[in-house]
């Protein structure tokens, strides 16, 4: 099915086409391009114009460019615009304008990608749903997502992120959501903001794009909730809140049972019991926000709860797996919690809570006692207080139930120093340094959690632990 014709794309961008074409997708990366895609020659680390020929050789329908690449055939299918990024933005705005989809924008310091994926799972069973891929949430990711949206979409979930002030508002205005959700506000990217209140102001800018009569979904439990409410009120948006202190979607209880989170909430005088196929109080909060946002979009709550119960986190974002360490003695296993994708004080604290609540197994390993073990890497972009923020994790309440903490990176050396001696594991400058010792650091019966900023490459530690044995086959969790 055609996504864009050359005529429609030229009209949207004000560009010039060299020949007629139709595309079925939009891509910015020749490594993952599919036949029929429109290749967008963005300039980042490399100039995308250098890859146009390769994209066309791989079957791209056409390329969005600002000039004809050197050596290109005169009849090559091109859409020529003044600026490629501006052309992509125009295509995104046109993609949004031509659909009747109910659109939701998601942002937040922590949990926005997981919540976006929860919403994708919830809405897919209730209508044709389009959503951001991976964490495509920045100045090119949002217009790319909108440009990829099929005209007949019924729901759309657009993730919006930021690193600096002023980024969210123009992206929100491009997405024009009917509902906008802020998962939480925390100390992330503090090097670019004066304080957390400044971060809250930036997150609140997601409401700037709300359509008339739009609904703002606010986490009631955060200290800066009033900042979000105030901005939403200034725009005459409807406001719904969620959380333990909320009026609209009130979280009543959270129970962690094995690898499942079971939560109970009230809304409008009714009660809802929902579950998520991964343990963690933060998953209950994200799930509740997702249910609130989905109902605000017009989704059926009962169907939403059922779909949410089947959702599981992705690799690097809290996925859990059992690793068999012995092919014969099948009781010799450890549990791996993969949080290696990213980290900040809030999300790392949540991951420590999950680890602290995990059940270990005694009597199956060489040590005899199952342990709760954390491998943690530096948290980046925290600003002038970064050393204190790392060291203060030693006082997190969850640390009382964690046996050993291995630290990776110069900033995590401050946590290592602050930990009680009996909890101090190894400190290493890089993930590669600690990988060499993984075999002796973990044992059957252990539960091992790994988390750090993406640049710390703690995925190498995850891979090293997986290679100690083999993962268990995927199976459904027990009903609870």
TrEMBL record:
Subcellular location: Cytoplasm
Organism: Shimia sagamensis
Xref: PANTHER family: UDP-N-ACETYLMURAMOYL-TRIPEPTIDE--D-ALANYL-D-ALANINE LIGASE
Residues binding ATP, per UniProt: 108-114
Pathway participation: Cell wall biogenesis; peptidoglycan biosynthesis
HAMAP family: MurF
Catalytic activity: D-alanyl-D-alanine + UDP-N-acetyl-alpha-D-muramoyl-L-alanyl-gamma-D-glutamyl-meso-2,6-diaminopimelate + ATP = UDP-N-acetyl-alpha-D-muramoyl-L-alanyl-gamma-D-glutamyl-meso-2,6-diaminopimeloyl-D-alanyl-D-alanine + ADP + phosphate + H(+)
The family this protein is said to belong to: Belongs to the MurCDEF family. MurF subfamily.
Protein name according to UniProt: UDP-N-acetylmuramoyl-tripeptide--D-alanyl-D-alanine ligase
Domain Mur ligase N-terminal catalytic, chain residue ranges per copy: 24-69
Chief location bin: cytoplasm
Known role: Involved in cell wall formation. Catalyzes the final step in the synthesis of UDP-N-acetylmuramoyl-pentapeptide, the precursor of murein.
EC numbers for this chain: 6.3.2.10
Molecular functions (GO terms): ligase activity
Enzyme class: ligase
Domain Mur ligase central: 106-294
InterPro entries per the UniProt record, alphabetical: Mur-like_cat_sf, Mur_ligase_C, Mur_ligase_C_dom_sf, Mur_ligase_cen, Mur_ligase_N, MurCDEF_CellWall_CoF430Synth, MurE/MurF_N, UDP-N-AcMur_synth
All residue ranges annotated as the Mur ligase C-terminal domain in the record: 330-453
UniProt keyword annotations, A-Z: ATP-binding, Cell cycle, Cell division, Cell shape, Cell wall biogenesis/degradation, Cytoplasm, Ligase, Nucleotide-binding, Peptidoglycan synthesis
């Amino acid at each position: 099915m055609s996504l864009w014709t050359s005529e429609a794309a030229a009209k949207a961008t004000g560009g010039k086409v060299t020949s007629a074409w139709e595309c079925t997708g939009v891509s910015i990366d020749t490594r993952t391009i599919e036949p029929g895609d429109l290749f967008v020659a963005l300039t980042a680390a490399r100039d995308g114009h250098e890859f146009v020929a390769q994209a066309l050789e791989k079957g791209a329908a056409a390329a969005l460019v600002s000039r004809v690449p050197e050596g290109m055939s005169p009849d090559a299918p091109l859409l020529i615009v003044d600026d490629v990024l501006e052309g992509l933005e125009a295509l995104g705005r046109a993609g949004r304008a031509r659909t009747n989809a109910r659109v939701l924008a998601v942002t937040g310091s922590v949990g926005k990608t997981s919540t976006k994926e929860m919403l994708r799972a919830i809405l897919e069973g209730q209508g044709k749903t389009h959503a951001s891929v991976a964490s495509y949430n920045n100045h090119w990711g949002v217009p790319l997502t909108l440009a990829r949206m099929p005209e007949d979409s019924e729901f759309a979930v657009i993730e919006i992120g930021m690193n600096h002030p002023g980024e969210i508002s123009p992206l929100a205005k491009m997405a024009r959501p009917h509902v906008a959700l802020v998962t939480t506000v925390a100390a992330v990217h503090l090097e670019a903001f004066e304080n957390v209140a400044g971060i809250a102001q930036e997150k609140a800018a997601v409401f700037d794009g709300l359509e008339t009569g739009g609904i703002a979904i606010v986490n009631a439990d955060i200290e800066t909730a009033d900042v979000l409410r105030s901005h939403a009120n200034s725009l005459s948006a409807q406001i719904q809140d969620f959380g333990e202190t909320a009026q609209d979607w009130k979280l009543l209880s959270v129970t962690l049972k094995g690898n499942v989170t079971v939560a109970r909430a009230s809304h409008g005088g009714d009660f809802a019991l929902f579950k998520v196929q991964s343990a963690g109080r933060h998953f209950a909060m994200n799930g509740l926000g997702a249910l609130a946002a989905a109902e605000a979009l017009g989704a059926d709550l009962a169907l939403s709860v059922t779909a949410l119960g089947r959702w599981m986190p992705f690799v690097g974002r809290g996925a859990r797996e059992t690793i068999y360490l012995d092919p014969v003695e099948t009781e010799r296993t450890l549990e791996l919690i993969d949080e290696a994708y990213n980290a900040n004080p809030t999300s790392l604290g949540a991951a420590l809570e999950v680890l602290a609540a995990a059940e270990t197994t005694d009597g199956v390993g060489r040590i005899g006692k199952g342990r709760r073990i954390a491998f943690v890497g530096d948290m980046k972009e925290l600003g002038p207080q970064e050393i204190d923020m790392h060291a203060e994790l030693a006082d997190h309440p969850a640390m009382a139930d964690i046996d050993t903490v291995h630290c990776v990176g110069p900033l995590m050396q401050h946590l290592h120093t602050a930990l009680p001696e009996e909890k101090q594991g190894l400190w290493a400058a890089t993930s590669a340094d600690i990988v060499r010792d993984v075999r002796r650091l973990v044992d059957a019966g252990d539960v091992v959690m790994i988390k750090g900023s993406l640049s710390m490459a703690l995925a190498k530690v995850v891979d090293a632990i997986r290679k100690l044995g083999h993962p268990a086959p995927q199976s459904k969790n027990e009903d609870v």
